[in-house]
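Example with several molecule types.
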Amino acid sequence: MSDLIRLLPDHIANQIAAGEVIQRPASVVKEMMENAIDAGADKIHVIIKDAGRTLIRIVDNGNGMSPNDAVLCFDRHATSKVRTADDLFALTTKGFRGEALASVAAIAHVSLQTRREEDETGRSIVVEGTKIKSNEACVCPIGTTFDVKNLFFNVPARRNFLKSDNVEFNHIREEFERIVLAHPTLGFTLSHNDVETYHLTPGILRKRIVDILGKGANDRLVPVEEKTDIVNLTGYVLKPEFSRKTRGEQYLFVNDRYFRDNYLGHAVNKAFEGLVAPKNFPGYFLYLTIDPKKIDVNVHPTKTEIKFEEDKHIYMIILSAIKQTLGKYNVMPSLDFEQETSFELPYSMKNQPVVEPEIKVNPMYNPFHSNSGKGSSSGFTKAVSAQGFGKTAASTQDWENFYSIEDEVKDKQGLLIEAEDEAYAAKESLIKDKFLITTCRSGLLLIDIQRAFERMVYDELFNRFISNPIESQSLLFPVERNVSKQEHSAWEEQQQMLHRLGFQWEMKDDTLQISAVPSVLEQETIPACVDLILEEIAFKTIDKGDIAHLIVRSVAAAAGRKKHQLSGAAADQFIELLFACPEHALTPSGKKIMQTLTLDEISNRF
Ligand code: ADP
Ligand code: MG
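Resulting structure tokens for the full complex:
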């Protein structure tokens, strides 16, 4: 019987290896940017066409390569960074496996132009599917330029597996951000289809973080600093009130390399325990400096998972350093999680400075008088209109109401610090605003008003918005929100859908200025709505099909957060309308709208 084992030809071995290192265009960007940094570049340009499908170009002003190295670099295990096995335990470079270029060359058309300072002419190489197609002298600046075209041209399965341009570019941006955050002293640009997304000048870390998060971020950062024998820790955490529902702003770096680590991430979460709302994630940018001998970067082909020799100690160091920071900078928010509120602002808004009413209030609105029922010619169901849905009327009365309500609020605040029993009474009425109680065959039915409203608004909006644009309500004074680059472009990407829903805005660099909103939104719910939408579209990788659902869901969730006043006929109508929704038991995000208290359960209580 003949032997069964055969060695794979190089091009197949490279393709298989490529699958590990290069999963998508973003992987190419990461590997090439890292190479540029290893080559000592301090200006690195990343130029992308069609989310990397058509072109990924990385231009650096680093050391360049000799004509020989320019050919050799495409070989597997070709690296200038590791010479002996010992080097592996004292890595100071990003790359060392010598796999990236061989992998890219196996699955794309690559051209390279490179020149060292000491060479008069540069070298230009073209490689297609591992084969060198041309190799000649050329005129080019010092440094290296790689062009990667037709990625996965010979691996259709991979090519078909790529997501929409939007999703793929988000991955690229993510890798880019991780690298630039690790190297604030280097200059970078990123452009996509000739639009410059980032233009980052060298500077201090704080500036770099702010460049990524948006101008408003400066005030949100609190420095962390801890020097120990095991590890040095520096960086920033975001104040607790800026925690998010998604993990978007969580960054760990070790020796200037981004990495993921659930265990150490847990240390940060633990330090924030009790300070951020349940299910929210604190933001952090933490930089560990540690003796390279004490970590193993080699555990994963993309090097984003790292083994630490002393991870338990590092865990404790992170935990205590952040706790100290939060104490020292006195950023413990005076939030009371027990407090029952029918108007649940996201935590990100709760600690924002109080905005003076004359700046933010829109006289077209009567935010506190939701039973107006005026101007319900919008075609919305009557009961929904009675809830303020689609109303457009304005009157001077609204202003008067506004001031009288404001007084009332002040009075209430006085009340709270008075006798306990009065405070108790106030709480009871809140409970009444929050739930509707009605009888049903098996007992009592409790309906969460806010969630029910969310469901109704969602159904109305979604059905209408498919056939017609939603009516919009102009704001006399625009609502502003600071946005990061990522949020900025995510918002612009959805502009068609957002316009259709009734949003109008102006985008100025890092400020989103909203001038009109879907008429279902009350003034007070607009900031929450923008937060929710951005949360959905900017931080998660979503598929196109879901976007309408997610955006409408956010609008509905925000709309639900207004104050509801339901009594008598309005309550009956409300319940009727709720049951007219095909999915009346759950909110669009799957939360329970109602609970029954059966007769048995009730009897057991007596
Ligand atoms: P590694 O980075 O693990 O060494 P790569 O396949 O990424 O492996 O790169 C192979 C080699 O090519 C590097 O070790 C380096 O010598 C050279 N190289 C790659 N990119 C550049 C660049 N932008 N400038 C100079 N040299 C480079
Ligand atoms: Mg490399």
